Amino acid sequence: MLFVALASIAIALASAIAIADTLSIIAFRIGMCAIMALVYFKLFPAPHHLTPFDVRDWLMTQIAMICGFATSYPMNRWLISIGLKEAM
Length: 88
Hints:
Layout: H1 2-43, H2 55-81
Helix pairs in contact: 1-2
């Protein structure tokens, strides 16, 4: 009986960790993909699409990563406040 209780606690803990990481990554991807879509379709529309060989693509990717951080920060703060994540 004790083994079943410990196993269920371990499963619950693993799922809570997975949910916390998943929510954090989803928030990051929302910010990053939104900026990259804006850059790709509005700032550099066809036929001037960015390619990985273009320096502007790398610059825009870095800016998109900063925006991803900005959108994931509130989610991480919330996850820490409710106890699903630990502060670093």
